[in-house]
């Protein structure tokens, strides 16, 4: 179908020239445009489809970019990007060198705040609103936040503050009753009661926080939305609009299976059918190795508990939730709570597997230190999506965990080299450890198509590093699944026992006995990791060498000291020179120099 209206719009001021009667047609065109491109280029789908009308109404009513609009998480901001000067580039979304999948200040003046991690929008927009007041500027400030994201502690901190200000802040709650997985918790029940009219108006909790509350209204009804936004524009102080939308709106399958269509991969734009890749003979996803192994272990140990903050599907904690609903908890977007809840359970002798994406654990740093490590509670952190995650980009790479966890006393860190190693460390942790442990593993699939399940678990000796290959001259020390790249690179160069390769599953505690032997035997050491080298595994080896007066040459390979953008994992590893070819050329150079 034609996109006559959309093609006329490069900026929101073009949009504001349209007659209100043309906006529903624009919404149809925008939706179709998003579907056509995401079907081929992949990305987040359902959330953006759900806010098409809201996006149009906001840019129609408010004077963006003068008025400041903050999208929470930003996975729903595709329509916003398309209407704000990026329509012709939208087909590069999330690709190397292309548009970011999330709003980003350096990308556009319309992206007022960089997002990706949830629940920041209220604080950020309030900060802007207070700054505008202080500067004597007359602007509107709008935060758009979803029902799952508003349940997070940080959003409540923002609301709590905003309610005692007279800042020009409009919070729009986009309530579609789902996050990535169905929303959870008492707040969800409260919002449902409000929607069903079961909550008396005088008991409205948002009103009681001193907001001008309106809604709930139909977020797909453009005339109603526009009328209400026009009204709110004139209201002073903090305001809260509750709108009801359908995630995936306009694509039947996306509306019916909202979990799958959050980010469906490639699909047929006309039928909506997801284009399935054959999964036969493919190695397992690490998340499934985690999820299925946990269930297996939990069968024999009633003390095992699983906790996820809002990622039951992404982490595969859903298997545990299905098998043992009483012992598995989705606590919503609440990483801080997830960590301290785990600590509380651990005080009572439970064996808690707290699964958090590496990047999202950053939010619960104090809880890891203060509530877990300081009390030496043996919580088992399973950090999925460690390393470079690919198209989600800089906000989501799990590259800092080794560096930010390594300095915490009591906390052990383990990075398995493959699926079996992951299973075995989960098993080992389930037997009971004297300390908390963080087990980090990457997004995506392993390499072992012959992975057997269930398997014979092997206990892993704490601290012990493993020799993967013998060699005489240079020692390569790797941690985690990047070992596979090292092995492949070594297999591709002609070397006759020049390089030895060691897998350091334990980054902490380090196998110092083996390190002494390595430092004595090899004058050159190369460390390889898929996280930042600043403070990471390589740094740990350098610290060991310095502390023990070794003067070996140590080369660190890993993620450099700047933020890595989006692209495929292969492209980004190549960029960091930790792909097979990058490592091969480094090893070849070392080999040539030695000969
Ligand atoms: C701190 C943090 N934890 C988890 C996530 C992963 N995540 C991204 S979107 C999302 C669900 C958001 O749901 P909601 O706010 O209701 O927005 P919707 O997708 O429904 O539009 C989650 C859990 C995140 N981005 N940030
Ligand atoms: C927007 C967001 O934070 C999530 O949707 C994230 O993109 C999920 O990542 P995975 O696809 O790795 O589960
Ligand atoms: Mg939602």
TrEMBL record:
CDD domains in the record, alphabetically? TPP_DXS, TPP_PYR_DXS_TK_like
| Superkingdom per UniProt | Bacteria
Reaction catalysed by this enzyme: D-glyceraldehyde 3-phosphate + pyruvate + H(+) = 1-deoxy-D-xylulose 5-phosphate + CO2
| Binding annotation for Mg(2+) | 147, 176
Name the residues that bind thiamine diphosphate: 75, 116-118, 148-149, 176, 335
Cofactor(s) recorded in Swiss-Prot or TrEMBL: thiamine diphosphate; Mg(2+)
Per UniProt, residues of the Transketolase-like pyrimidine-binding domain are 284-449
Q: In which pathway does it act?
A: Metabolic intermediate biosynthesis; 1-deoxy-D-xylulose 5-phosphate biosynthesis; 1-deoxy-D-xylulose 5-phosphate from D-glyceraldehyde 3-phosphate and pyruvate: step 1/1
Report the InterPro entries cross-referenced here.
Answer: Dxylulose-5-P_synthase, THDP-binding, Transketo_C/PFOR_II, Transketolase-like_Pyr-bd, Transketolase_BS, Transketolase_C
- Asked if the Swiss-Prot or TrEMBL record annotates the protein with the keyword NAD, the reply is no
- Note accompanying the cofactor annotation: Binds 1 thiamine pyrophosphate per subunit.
Q: Which keywords fit this entry according to its UniProt record? A: Isoprene biosynthesis, Magnesium, Metal-binding, Thiamine biosynthesis, Thiamine pyrophosphate, Transferase
| Family to which this protein belongs | Belongs to the transketolase family. DXPS subfamily.
What's the subunit arrangement here? Homodimer.
Q: What does this protein do?
A: Catalyzes the acyloin condensation reaction between C atoms 2 and 3 of pyruvate and glyceraldehyde 3-phosphate to yield 1-deoxy-D-xylulose-5-phosphate (DXP).
Protein name (database record): 1-deoxy-D-xylulose-5-phosphate synthase
Origin organism is Flavobacterium cheonhonense
